[in-house]
Amino acid sequence: MYRTRSVWTRARPVAGGFHQVVASQVTTRVVPHIGAVSRREWNALVGPDAFYTTHGWLDGLRHSFGNDPVVLAEDHAGRLLGGVPTWPGETDPSDLFDLTRMLPGLHIPAEGWLWLGPRRGTQNALVGPAPGTRPILGPLLDRTLALARSRGLDGVVMPYLPSRYALLLAAAHPRARALLHSADTLLPIPQGGLEAYLAKLGRRDRHRRRRELRDLSRSGAQTAWRPFTPDLQDTAVRLITQNRARYGGTPDESWMRRSIAAQRAVGVLDDAYASVVTRDDSPVAIAILYGCGDRLHARYFGFDYARHQPAGEYFVALYQTPLQHAAKAGYRHYHLGISAWPSKIRRGAELVPQAAVILPVNGTVCSDDQAAEHNAQAVRAWRAIAPGRPHAYGPAWSDWVSQDTES
User: Fold this and answer.
1) What does the alpha-carbon distance between residue 229 and residue 286 come to, in Å, rounded to a whole number?
2) DSSP code of 283?
3) Is 87 in contact with 115 (CB distance < 8 Å)?
4) Is 394 exposed, middle or buried (0-12, 13-18, 19+ CB in 10 A)?
5) Rounded to two decimals, what is the model's pTM?
6) E strands present in 66-208
């Protein structure tokens, strides 16, 4: 464990929130894992849209895969002000963490980086009190860069950041670049549940969603929405592993079994739900979703490909069934993840731009002009996915054309 100090400004808590900034000092240090950090203090700094950066999720990863260092920012009295998890990165068939493939045309090496954020995180966030985050980002980046340098790495990268986080982080260092590379999908959850959701869709999309429900009913299948309790664990492991193996993942159930056991141990599954489809009283499909604040997060899907042919279970388990029940539990936003974008847009989802912030130990990965051109081209490419569906594009996309770091 080691520390550095640098001058910064801290937001002083006053009635109504953090807004009065005073001169102070920040201390940064590296701890071996999230277990060395107070759960209460860490979660107090996690925003409502940052489930995968909560202490519980990070601690579950630690139990599953071992220790990953966390860089902390504290004030002179040792109070936690923010932090950033790190992990070594990996290569796998999905290419989700291969910079060469994530950012084609920029010729960025795939290896040699210290990755920031939760292990294999595809929905990242900054940890710190929202109005006071900006002053601590420079010291945090300096410390992560020093950690990368000590390991002989080329630099640091934090991918899958929403616009506001990516632009803030890139502005904290003159050599950092924020580069668009993906998009999350976010579906509003109307208070009226499934019928209110269907009513907001266009006529063609609405008729298709109703047909999916009818087709599944004719197949003899039944649906259920329930807490993800221990009795479902073996079924979930078996079905999710089948789905992962079908799309290039490991057929070994131990990976998923270890992950679920770790999440159960640290309490993450206390707010998890299972969307289950059964035929002849036997589960054939399952989706696991996590609740955090007013947000619901889809994470895993499994299907019994060994014994059944799909009959629309994926769509019903991940869309219709959650939307039928989520509003009653107080959820208002549904994160659907970073795949199958056209299908999710047709179901009413909005694309949320995601960027990687990259900071090499020496130099830059590209010039400001190259970054601006890359991001402008990326915006054009993403807008071409659904040109006739304006609901799919929120105002955050315009930030990447102007590169407005104050937005």
Assistant:
1) 13
2) E
3) yes
4) middle
5) 0.90
6) 70-74, 80-87, 113-116, 155-162, 177-188
- pLDDT tier for residue 131 given thresholds of 50, 70 and 90: low
Average pLDDT on 310-334 reads 93
Phi, psi for residue 242 in degrees, rounded to 5: -60, -45
Compute and round to an integer the Cα radius of gyration of the chain.
22
Q: Where are the beta strands (DSSP E) in 189-340?
A: 221-227, 272-279, 282-292, 295-303, 333-335
pLDDT higher than threshold 50 for residue 271: yes
The CA distance from 72 to 127, in Å, is 10
Q: How far is CA 172 from the centre of its chain?
A: 22
pLDDT bracket for residue 31 (50, 70, 90): very high
Residue with the two structure tokens 């609901």: 391
177 with 199: CB under 8 angstroms? no
Nearest to 275 by CA among 288, 264, 292: 288
Count of Cβ atoms closer than 10 Å to residue 5 Cβ: 11
**For the segment 178-222, what is each residue's pLDDT rounded down to a tens digit?**
999 999 999 999 999 999 999 999 899 999 999 988 888 888 889
Bridge-based pairing of strands 17-31 and 177-188 is unpaired
Q: Distance between CA atoms of 162 and 65, rounded to whole angstroms?
A: 26
pLDDT number for residue 357: 98
* Helix (H) / strand (E) containing 402: helix 396-402
Residue 362 sits at the vertex; the CA angle it makes with 360 and 366, to the nearest 5 degrees, is 60
Give Cα separations from 232 to 70, 238, 240, 285, 302 (angstroms). Answer: 33, 10, 12, 12, 12
Sort residue 363 into left (φ over 0), alpha (ψ -120 to 50) or beta. Answer: left
What the block records as the tokens of 254 is: 């131990």
Look-up of token digits 């079924």: 235
Distances (CA, A) of 71 to 140, 146, 206: 7, 11, 47
**d(Cα 184, Cα 341) in Å, to the nearest integer?**
9
What distance in Å separates the CA atoms of residue 242 and residue 87, rounded to the nearest whole number? 27
